Amino acid sequence: MKQSRRFFSRIGRFVQAHPVMTLLLAVALIGVAFVGAGQIESVTGDRAFVGSNPTLDTFDDEFDYGSVATLVRGEVTDPTTMRAIDRYDQRMSAVEDVQTVNSPADRVREEYGRIPDSQTKIERVIGSPDTAVIGIVTDAGMTQQQSRPIYTKAVDRKGWVQFPAGVSVTVTGSAAFSTQLSALIQQSTQQLLGLAVGLMTVALFFLFRGVRLRLLPIVAVFVGVIYTFGAIGYAGVPNSTLTSAVFPILIGLGIDYSVQFHERYEEELETHPPKQALPLALGGIGPPVSIAAIAATLGFGATWISSAGTPAFVWFAQTSMFGIGLTFLSGIIVLLPILTLYARWRGDGETTDTDADTETNSDSDPADEAIETTTPTESTTNTDLGDIGMLGRTLGRTTRFVASHPIAVLLIAVVLLGGGLAAGDSLETLADSEEFIPQDLPAYVDLQQFRTVTGGGSAVQYDMLVTGSNIRDPTALRWMEQYRQIATDKPLIDGMQTPATLVKQHNGGEIPATETGVKRVLNDIPASERANYYSDGYAHITIIGERNMNTDELLDFLAIADSSSELTRPPAGLTAELTGQAAVSTPSIVTQIETRNVTTGLGVLFVFGALLLYYRNLIRAVAPLVPMLFVIGWQNLYMSALSIPVSPLGASLGAMSVGIGAEYTIIVMERYFEEFGQSGVSRLDAVEIAGARVGKAITVSGLTTVFGFSALTLSPFPILGDFGFLTVGVIFLTLVAAILTLPPTLIVLGRLSDLVERVVASRRDIAVQGDPDEVKADD
């Protein structure tokens, strides 16, 4: 600890001596960050929730043909409309990466060689529908970024072909959905950033009073956010629905770090000139804030490890970890040098040039000397509460009161913890990825309308990849047919299309007896149709489920499809596995929710290990975590009261709250031990001083963080809105726990420590008295 204090004191000494150079470094890093930010890509939909999966990768490359559907509603059989459809068909067929375009115009042109002028002739071929679908099939294995230009061109071509008035034309499909969702994510990220900054500016203006440049922490943290954008760009971390939630969180956390630096600097300025105040302030507050930042990083690290198979959560954790370190850095290289320059401009504590040179070039510094002392002195602490204001005095008295009644306070906290743990089992869950997005998103509305018109429900088709060298053998086809018959008799499965279905359709309803006969039938089938079922070494089965299944029904559907495959026993040499983004992403999301206790446990373990390694003291490693354990249970009561469901993002909040909330408890604990180490200061006195001095700072930073996180509640994404309400409540609860349950925890642990020391000392005395040799040696 002493070394870390000395390390931060020397950083403060350097910043104090070279503020302009430090600011120039900060500005240069902004330029570097803008270059990295330009490399960020967006990933949306189920793809963000599907990790590395060889079977899925193979399916994507061989059978996952992208699609852009164009829905035409109106007088479809009118010759003018059909010619527009035909022009659109031909234009889109010439677009790069478009494999095929299927439209009613194809059938009409095939019948007459052209589009006739007679509506009757057109109706004779396609009937008299009031809707038509133009299906644009793209090459397999394309990424979202590669498919988006096709959607853009489809929209452009729609206007170019000039559909007649009164005809509605809607371009929809996965590419349209991905494009609009990506744009909304970027827009939402910018709006949330602006809201978070605005709300916290208001909070700082009214709460962080009595200090110079009270809005400066906003500037520092905003620079840290810019650094974070650059870092994720260079690291290749995409922007996704969940990642956009990180930045309001980072603004809240970064404000904490900057406010702590700012508040401690102001405190030291009360009794020291600026050139001593900054090294003393950073030497005193730097270590607890740094260990708090490490704890927060480890909390997000637990989320990373526990969700390693789900990219969206990994990106969320990675972005958060980058942001914590970089907002901490910006507090040092942006906020502190500006405060230094402002103090010089104001002429506070001016020295002569000789004094400045001596202080800059000397090998020692008063701050270093103060930190070198074993017991804190007046040069590092200030037991006189001085002018701490009404808030500080109130917090000091509150912490002294709860510390005076430790058993009663902790008993109430434990009872609430038990109630929260019991309530956790009855919370609802949010696991359907389509419910994560705004339900009024135009592309989503269009997609739902398309599904309704075409008879499809919500995500009704799922896929199975069959692998083996004998996939065209009649035995394999007979197994596929048997599988289809058994599976379609099960609940939730409405139909199935297999290679056997294709072969029977083109062979009079029969499966050929020999492999040669199967190959002959397949050779007569158009390549574009055959490609949906067969590729080199692979076969594709499409399973159709009931419309609008909820999450539990979808999991049952997948289990039934899988068990039916095992029941029919594929022939030797064949393997069949359910795959596709929808089939893989939903179980992944559900697993993330169900393992939330594991994630929380990892977070507690990681933070405890870090604290124990840093302090090398069991009490100091345990004390900051006790209030966070209370919060883990209390947050369930909060969620139950507000009917907030457990989402995959909220499932990581347990580990996050341990890491984030540990900052408040660590800072209070550090100041407690700093004061208790002085002669004549009792435990209750130390608690009161800590609560009055740093309680004000953490209250300001905590409430400011609450304001920043509240921006998430206004997100257009339901999953982020719920997460916003959850984080606001949890941060407030961690602040309450730090002020109300940490002081009694410190008192109880301190008394236990004293008791253990007395017992050990008593036994040592007895042992010495009972050993004559030791007594003689003492004499």
Structure report:
With 779 residues, the protein is α+β, with helices and mostly antiparallel strands. It has a domain at 469-573. The chain is built from 31 helices and nine strands. The protein has helices spanning 2-17, 19-37, 54-62, 79-93, 104-112, 119-126, 144-160, 174-207, 216-235, 246-269, 274-306, 311-346, 353-361, 366-372, 389-404, 406-423, 442-453, 474-488, 499-505, 515-523, 527-530, 551-568, 581-594, 596-615, 618-622, 625-642, 653-676, 683-709, 718-740, 742-769, 772-778, and strands spanning 65-73, 98-102, 131-140, 168-172, 461-467, 493-497, 534-535, 538-545, 575-579. Strands 5, 6, 7, 8 and 9 form a five-stranded antiparallel β-sheet that branches. A hairpin with a 2-residue loop joins β7 and β8. α9 runs antiparallel to α12 (311-346). The longest helix is centred in the middle third of the chain and has 36 residues, at 311-346. The radius of gyration is 33 Å and the shape is elongated. The chain starts with a helix and ends with a helix. The model is unreliable at 350-364, 372-383 and 774-779 (pLDDT under 50).
